[in-house]
Amino acid sequence: MLTLYFHYKFKKRPSPLSASINSVLLVISGTVCITPLLRSAGPVAAPREVFRGRMLLSVEPGSKPFTKQEIIGFVIGSVSSVLYLLSRLPQIRTNFLRKSTQGISYSLFALVMLGNALYGLSVLLKNPEVGQSEGSYVLHHLPWLVGSLGVLLLDTIISTQFLVYRDTAEAASLEREPLLPS
Question: What is the 3-class SS of the chain, one letter each residue?
Answer without folding.
Answer: CHHHHHHHHHHCCCCHHHHHHHHHHHHHHHHHHHHHHHHCCCCECCCHHHHCCCCCCCCCCCCCCECHHHHHHHHHHHHHHHHHHHCCHHHHHHHHHHCCCCCCCHHHHHHHHHHHHHHHHHHHHCCCCCCCCHHHHHHHCHHHHHHHHHHHHHHHHHHHHHHHCHHHHHHHHHCCCCCCCC
